[in-house]
C-alpha cells in the first residue's frame, strides 16, 4: 500500500517539479517565436532528464550513497572540484532566476515592484528550510504544484492544431532566424536537464531512505513524473504559439505572460498563471538552495540532512542560508527575472558533461550497483546523452552570443 | 634504518621505471593487508598496482580518464601489473623504481 | 579478474567518508600518509582531514595561498588539519569508522564555530523537526 502512495507522490512531484522559471520562460519564448516547431527540443529534454533521474535514483537506492558522494569517492578531489565549480555556478545562477520568478509573480499579483519582494521571498524560503523537513519541502511543493495542471487545460481550450503539433516532435530546421532558433533549442535543453534536478533527486532518495525495492517507484517517478511535467511545459509552448505568435509578440518581460492563458481561460487564466509561476518557482528555490548545500556538504564529508535540526549540521545549514539570501540580491536590485533566466539556461546545458559522463563508469560498476547495473537500453541512452552534452558544451557560448535575446 | 613519511597522493599517478630506466606504468592502486597486533591493527602495503596504457598514455594523467580507459581495457592496450612491495624502491618518492627489470616483472605476471 | 584480498587504498580508503565513535560524520579522508622504512613494507600511518589538505591535492599554489590565509587568520599555516593515526580505524565499509570523538578534531573547528556563534543564536535551530 505504501508503495502506491510513494508512486503517487513521485508523479505529483514531477508534475509541478518540471515547471519552473526556466521551462516557463524558454517554452513561452519558443512558442511565440517559432510556434510548435521546438516541441522536439522539449521532448528530447524530458526524455534525457527521465533517464538521468532514473539512473541517479537507482544509484542512490542501491548504494545508499548520493551521486555527489560517489563523484568524490570514485573520481578523486581534482575531478570533483571541477564538477563542483561547474554545478555550483550554474545552480546559483538558476537560483537567482527562480527567486526573480517568485518576485515577478508577486509583482503581477499585487502591483508592488518585484525588487521589493526578492528579500522577503528569500527569507520565507529560508524559514521553510530552517524549520521544515525534507518531506515537508518535497510534499508541500508537490501538492501546491498541481495547480500547474491549469496550463494543460488552458492549452486544450485554445484549440491547437493537433496534427501540426504532432509533426513538431520531429526535429526540423527553422525557416528564419536560425541563430535564435538553435539558441532557444539549447535553452530548452538546459532548462529541462538542469544538473541540480538529478543531483537533488539522488540526495532525496537517500533522505527518504530508499532501498533497491524502490526500483519501480524510481522508474515511475522519473519517467511518468517528468512526462506529465513536460506536458505542462508543452502546454506553454502551444498556448504561446496560439496567443502570441499570430500577433508577433516578442517576449522580453515576464509580465507579458500574464495574458497567456486569458483567452482560453478568461480572467482566471491570469491568476492561475501568476499562482503557478509563484509556486513552481518557490519550490525550485527551495530545491536549488538545498541542492547547493548537498553538493558542498557531501563533497567535503560534512554532516548533512534537511531532516536534522540546523544545530546538528551547522556548515550545511549555513550554506543554504547564505545561498538563498545572496541569490536574492540581483532580483532585489531590479534585474529582470527574464534576463537572469536567459543567461543561465544555456550555461546549464554547457555544464552537463561533468555530471553526465561520470555516470557511464558508475552505472556499470558492479561493486557500486551490484546486479542493478545499467541494461543496454540505459547505456545507449546514457552514451547518446553524453554525446549530446559534449556538443552542447561547444555550441553554448557561440549560441548565447549570437542568439541570446 | 631510515623512515620517511610519504603522502599517498604523491605516489598515485607517478610513473614507475625499472632498473634499466624503462617505463613500467603509473601507480593506480595500493593493496594493503591487515596485520593484527595486540596494540591495534596495522595496515601494511602488500602490493602496488601499476597500469600501463599503451596508446592512451599521454591522455591519462587524470583519474577520470584512467577510469574510462580501464573500462575500454584491452582494446587500447591497457595492462595492469601487481608489484609486491619488496620489488618497489621508494627512496625517491617522486620517482618510484622497480628493483628488478620489466622483463622479470612480466615473467612473474605470466606465472 | 584476480580476487582482491585486502584493502584497496585508493578505491576504498582515499576520499571515503569518516564517522566518529557516535556515528557522526567528521569529514572525508582528504589525504593519507605512508611510513616507508627500508626493508619493511610501507605502513599506512595517518589520515589527514581538512580544507588545507584538500587544497594540497589540487596543487601547490592553492596550498600556499590557503596557508597564507590561515596564517593571517589563526597564526598557523596548518590550522584546522586533523591528523588521525590509522590505528584509530575500527572498520572500513561504505564509510570508515574511527575511534575518535568529533569534538576533538581540529578539522571540525568551522562546524563548531558556526554552531556556537551563528546557528545556535538563530531561533529554531534546536527544536526537533517533525
Question: Can you put this structure into words, describing what you see?
Answer:
The complex is a heterotrimer of chains A (405), B (111) and C (130). Chain A has 405 residues and is an all-alpha fold. Chain A has a single domain (2-403), classed as Amino acid/polyamine transporter I (Up-down Bundle), CATH 1.20.1740.10. Chain A has 20 helices and no strands. The longest helix of chain A is centred in the N-terminal third of the chain and has 44 residues, at 67-110. By secondary structure, chain B is of the alpha+beta class. Chain B has one domain (8-110): SH3 type barrels, CATH 2.30.30.240. Helix content of chain B is 21%, strand content 41%. A 4-stranded antiparallel sheet of chain B has the order 2-3-4-5. A two-stranded antiparallel ribbon of chain B has the order 6-7. Chain C has 130 residues and is of the alpha+beta class. Chain C has a single domain, classed as PRC-barrel domain (SH3 type barrels, Roll). Chain C is built from 4 helices and 8 strands, in the order E-H-E-E-E-E-H-H-E-E-E-H. A 4-stranded mixed sheet of chain C has the order 3-2-8-7, with no helix packed on it. Chain A binds chain B through residues 74-76, 78-79, 358, 360-361, 364, and chain B through 62-64, 67-68, 71. Strand 1 (3-7) of chain B pairs antiparallel with strand 4 of chain C.
Quick tags:
heterotrimer, A: 405 residues, Amino acid/polyamine transporter I, 0% strand, B: 111 residues, alpha+beta, SH3 type barrels, four-stranded antiparallel β-sheet, two-stranded antiparallel ribbon, 41% strand
Q: Please list the strands of the largest sheet of chain C in the order they lie side by side.
A: 3-2-8-7
What distance lies between the first and last C-alpha atoms of chain B, to the nearest angstrom?
33 Å
Query: How many DSSP E strands of chain B?
Result: 7
Q: How do the SSEs of chain C run, as a string of H and E?
A: EHEEEEHHEEEH
Strand content of chain B: 35-45%
The biggest sheet of chain B amounts to: 4 strands, antiparallel
User: What is the overall number of helices of chain B?
Assistant: 3
* Terminal Cα span of chain C: 49 Å
The chain pair forming the largest interface, with residue counts per chain, is: B-C, 33 and 31 residues
Main sheet: strands, sense, barrel of chain C: 4 strands, mixed
CATH-defined fold name of chain C: SH3 type barrels
Beta-strand percent range of chain C: 25-35%
Structural class computed from helices and strand pairing of chain C: alpha+beta
Amino acid at each position: 500500500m505504501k508503495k502506491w502512495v510513494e508512486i503517487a507522490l513521485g508523479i505529483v512531484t514531477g508534475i509541478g517539479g518540471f515547471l519552473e522559471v526556466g521551462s516557463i520562460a524558454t517554452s513561452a519564448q519558443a512558442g511565440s517565436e517559432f510556434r510548435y516547431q521546438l516541441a522536439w527540443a522539449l521532448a528530447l529534454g524530458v526524455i534525457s532528464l527521465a533517464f538521468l533521474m532514473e539512473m541517479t535514483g537507482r544509484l542512490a537506492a542501491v548504494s545508499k550513497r548520493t551521486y555527489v558522494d560517489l563523484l568524490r569517492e570514485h573520481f578523486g578531489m581534482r575531478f570533483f572540484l571541477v564538477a563542483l565549480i561547474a554545478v555550483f555556478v550554474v545552480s546559483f545562477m538558476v537560483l537567482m532566476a527562480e527567486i526573480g520568478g517568485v518576485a515577478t509573480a508577486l509583482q503581477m499579483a499585487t502591483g508592488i515592484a518585484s525588487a521589493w519582494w526578492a528579500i522577503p521571498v528569500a527569507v520565507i524560503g529560508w524559514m521553510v528550510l530552517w524549520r521544515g523537513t525534507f518531506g515537508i519541502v518535497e510534499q508541500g511543493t508537490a501538492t501546491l504544484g498541481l495547480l500547474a495542471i491549469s496550463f494543460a487545460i488552458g492549452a486544450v481550450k485554445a484549440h491547437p492544431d493537433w496534427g501540426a503539433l504532432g509533426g513538431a516532435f520531429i526535429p526540423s530546421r527553422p525557416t528564419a532566424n536560425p541563430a535564435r532558433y538553435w539558441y532557444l533549442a539549447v535553452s530548452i535543453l538546459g532548462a529541462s536537464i538542469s544538473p541540480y534536478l538529478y543531483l537533488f533527486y539522488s540526495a532525496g532518495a537517500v533522505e527518504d531512505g530508499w532501498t533497491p525495492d524502490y526500483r519501480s517507484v524510481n522508474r515511475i517517478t522519473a519517467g511518468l513524473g517528468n512526462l506529465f511535467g513536460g506536458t505542462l511545459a508543452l502546454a506553454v509552448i502551444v498556448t504561446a504559439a496560439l496567443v502570441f505568435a499570430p500577433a508577433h509578440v516578442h517576449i522580453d518581460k515576464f509580465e507579458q505572460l500574464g495574458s497567456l492563458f486569458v483567452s482560453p481561460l478568461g480572467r482566471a487564466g491570469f491568476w492561475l498563471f501568476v499562482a503557478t509561476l509563484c509556486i513552481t518557482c518557490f519550490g525550485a528555490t527551495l530545491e536549488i538552495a538545498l541542492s547547493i548545500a548537498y553538493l558542498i556538504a557531501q563533497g567535503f564529508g560534512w554532516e548533512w540532512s534537511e531532516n536534522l535540526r540546523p544545530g546538528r549540521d551547522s556548515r550545511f545549514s549555513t550554506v543554504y542560508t547564505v545561498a538563498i539570501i545572496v541569490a536574492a540580491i540581483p532580483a532585489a536590485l531590479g534585474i529582470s527575472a527574464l534576463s537572469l533566466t536567459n543567461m543561465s539556461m544555456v550555461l546549464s546545458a554547457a555544464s552537463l558533461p561533468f555530471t553526465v559522463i561520470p555516470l557511464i563508469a558508475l552505472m556499470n560498476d558492479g561493486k557500486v550497483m551490484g546486479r542493478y547495473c545499467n541494461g543496454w537500453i540505459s547505456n545507449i541512452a546514457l552514451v547518446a546523452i553524453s554525446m549530446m552534452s559534449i556538443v552542447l558544451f561547444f555550441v553554448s557560448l557561440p549560441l548565447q552570443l549570437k542568439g541570446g535575446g | 634504518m631510515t623512515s620517511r613519511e610519504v603522502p599517498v597522493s604523491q605516489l598515485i599517478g607517478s610513473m614507475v621505471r625499472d632498473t634499466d630506466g624503462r617505463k613500467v606504468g603509473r601507480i593506480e592502486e595500493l593493496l594493503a593487508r591487515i596485520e593484527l597486533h595486540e596494540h591495534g591493527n596495522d595496515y601494511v602495503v602488500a602490493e602496488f598496482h601499476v597500469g600501463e596504457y599503451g596508446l592512451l598514455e599521454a591522455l591519462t594523467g587524470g583519474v577520470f580518464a584512467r577510469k574510462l580507459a580501464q573500462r575500454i581495457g584491452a582494446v587500447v592496450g591497457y595492462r595492469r601489473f601487481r608489484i609486491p612491495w619488496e620489488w618497489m624502491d621508494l627512496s625517491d618518492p617522486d620517482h618510484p623504481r622497480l628493483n628488478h627489470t620489466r622483463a622479470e616483472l612480466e615473467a612473474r605476471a605470466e606465472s | 579478474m584476480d580476487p582482491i584480498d585486502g584493502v584497496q587504498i585508493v578505491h576504498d580508503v582515499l576520499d571515503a567518508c569518516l564517522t566518529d565513535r557516535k556515528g557522526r560524520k567528521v569529514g572525508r579522508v582528504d589525504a593519507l600518509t605512508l611510513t616507508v622504512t627500508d626493508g619493511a613494507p610501507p605502513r599506512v600511518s595517518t589520515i589527514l582531514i581538512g580544507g588545507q589538505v584538500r587544497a594540497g591535492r589540487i596543487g601547490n599554489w592553492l596550498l600556499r595561498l590557503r596557508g597564507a590565509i590561515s596564517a593571517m587568520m589563526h597564526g598557523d599555516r596548518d590550522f584546522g588539519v586533523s591528523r588521525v593515526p590509522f590505528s584509530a580505524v575500527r572498520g572500513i565499509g561504505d564509510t570508515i569508522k574511527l575511534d575518535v570523538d568529533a569534538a576533538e578534531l581540529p578539522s571540525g573547528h568551522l562546524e563548531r564555530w558556526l554552531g556556537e556563534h551563528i546557528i545556535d543564536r538563530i531561533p529554531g535551530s534546536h527544536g526537533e523537526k517533525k
